[in-house]
Amino acid sequence: MQRAFLSRGSSLGFASAGIASLLCLLEQKRSEPLKAVECVGRNNSQEGRTWKEFGSWRLFPDRLRFLLPSPPVLCSHPRSPPESLISFECGFSEVFERVKPAVVRIYGSHKDSPEAAKFMGSGFVYKGKGGDGDSNHPVAMTAAHLFEENPSYAFHFVRTTNGQWFRARIRGLSSLADVAVVSIETRRSLPEVTTDKTRARPRQGAFVATYGTTQFANEPVGVVGIVSQPSQTFPQIEDSRIKFIQLGLITIPGMSGSPVVDTQGSVVGMVVKKFQEYGLGIPIHYAEGVARCIEETGKWDPPYLGMVLQEHKQRVVEGSAEGDDTESGVMVAQVKGGTPAEKAGIRTGDVILQVGAETVGAYQEVLEFVGCRAGVPVKMRIKRKQKEMDVTVIPTTQRVV
């Protein structure tokens, strides 16, 4: 017992001595400027890797480098590039600097008083190249409900964050997708955003930010938060074709149409609705797909499949014992005659397991992964009774009543 006590006391003594030495070293270094260091991982899997992303680690002087714990493993998600613009010292400043030049304020005015333009909401330039001809004007994207709530405005304008005013024209909008496309009437090229091309939604808990203008202020604002839920649905919103990105950041009135950006400054979504004090966005790959159709035809006709879908979950039974696992999918509750679904061989009672390479568990996911264009063949994996098979559906815009 005494030996154990002495051993414990010796450990405490060594720990106290170590803390005292550390304090002396810190006191000695306090008057010296802190040197930025690169912390190298000591994990076998991360040996020799430089950790530049964690700005707070760079505040340690070289002599304390050995005290650093093994650095955390970087996120390996496919839509998380290795370089981040955020840092301990500057926060999201670099992110906002990247997206700011492409953000615009949208105004409308009545025919009898075009000079009395009133603020409507935010938007962002996603095609900035200018030139001769109507089709070569810079193009901005925003939320469609901004124009639907103000139908009496005859003229529209945009104002950039550096104070330039331009006439604007609505190229088209979709109420169903809540996406509008605005042509900015100038031959000059304007700064444009960088959009995420992975088609993957941001992860739950990932840092995101939005940058836009507000209804009662003159200057744009930036707001930082996280992704609360990347694929959210609400019983009150029955007509939604797609799951929302629920944002854990405050959304101020006037920020509808603002871009949602990740830590690299790439746009991953657009703010379209508000849930209590927080924002709901749609993924940028969906918004861009709708916008391209509007650019080409002036409208967006959603792809039509011709079947009624409902969620399907079935408990898996193994042997004589009932398991806890469930088999997910989307059940086909009805197939209408003469539709793309019937022509593809889909029957009532089939369960859709995959659309393309994506596993589905809700009807909104089926509609999202089908895409935004009619006439493009879509491969689906379905299950009929106990047999899985692949079918190819070619959506149309012609609806069968």
TrEMBL record:
Family matches, as SMART domains: PDZ (SM00228)
Single GO biological process annotation from the record: proteolysis
Keyword Transmembrane: no
Domain of life: Eukaryota
Classification via Pfam families: PDZ_2, Trypsin_2
Residue stretches making up the PDZ domain: 305-360
Keywords for this protein: Hydrolase, Protease
Gene Ontology MF terms: serine-type endopeptidase activity
Family matches, as InterPro entries: PDZ (IPR001478), PDZ_sf (IPR036034), Peptidase_S1_PA (IPR009003), Peptidase_S1_PA_chymotrypsin (IPR043504), Peptidase_S1C (IPR001940)
Family per record: Belongs to the peptidase S1C family.
PANTHER family membership: SERINE PROTEASE FAMILY S1C HTRA-RELATED, SERINE PROTEASE HTRA2, MITOCHONDRIAL
Entry protein name: PDZ domain-containing protein
